[in-house]
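#data-curation
PF: Archiving a pair of folding outputs for the training set. Convention for this channel: one message per protein, sequence first, structure tokens after, nothing in between. First:
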Amino acid sequence: MQQITIVLLLGSYDPQTKSHLGIIREEIAKKFSGENVYTVLLDSTEIYFTEIIQVLAELFNKVKATLFIFQNGMLSDLYDVNLKNSLDETVYDFLKEKYGIQRISKESVFNKFHAMMQLAKVILLVRDKEETRGGEYVELMHAMFEGHSQKVWFLKRNGVRLSAMLMEYLDKFKVNLRSYNDKQDLITEVTRILKYELSS
């Protein structure tokens, strides 16, 4: 069994924020290289269940995926695979060949998010722009109500306003709140947070 640390990265999917999320993931991979730290994004990850194993599959650039294989809640194997067809078909073909699996089921978005919050040691949520649909607020509320507040670091760009009600929720659930000025400042904040979170 391997010991790994999963960082769940959340944010809006507007082009600017999504670009920031990609850069954060690359920076975490560089700065924590060799420490078995994996950063996953909700929209590029799927979770599959079989009778004997569970699989977290993260897609990279629509051509490769990393498969985290869990048995009884513990990571047992880690594989990088090239996509031959869709992610679903690639995962199924791989599991059939490697483990003799005949049937898999894919989790819904709700259940996927629930499972990923359970697996993550740290949850980073980025609010970079005001003029987005605010889907990350739904994710934030879900994390708080599921008891993951202490894992959550809410990073917002200076100047982005938060409602009085949201601030009360953040205070009530003791969510960690940080502000940043620009992309480099955001990377610095994330690095500092993870340096201490991953050592504890």
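PF: Second:
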Amino acid sequence: MKKIVSLLFALSLAFAAWAQNPMDRPMEAFPVAKETHVMCREAWEQLQNNPALAPQMVAAALQSGIRPYSNAVLAYADETAGPQAVVKAVKKLYPSLSDAAKADVLYWIGRNKLTALQKFVDEGLASPQAGEAALAAAFAAVQMGGKHNQALLDRCVEAGSPLAPEIQRLRGRVNGDDGDSTRNALRDQK
């Protein structure tokens, strides 16, 4: 009986240690291919050791076409070098990106409130189609807030843009939930 109890105790300790470090989990635990996970792990290690590599790594990741990888590298660059470190690289690369990569960049711009890249948000909102990048531009404009973005979003809604329902939802004006203080605070930020 003592052997069984000690075995169970050892297994529970091993499981607790395994659960604390996500990099030690089997690759099947991650929702991406094993190769992508390995690439993300290597990118994290490189950026931790040398944050100055962030612009080159972000550019390569965005051009790779592997969305989990490019989003991971953008997040890692934020953590290690800061979002301002890659603004110049993104500005140069943005026009040549696919719609999906542009959407990832626009979400990143919105989360970080990068006014230096406002031009891309404006272009996304001016798009005649409600593609993925245009929806991401609406998200970015709501996240960034301010009078300029407020006016852009108002014009889209008033003009009957295909983005209008999504803009209304993001602003918290759907189904009477206009009183949502979190969304209103995000919308009204300057």
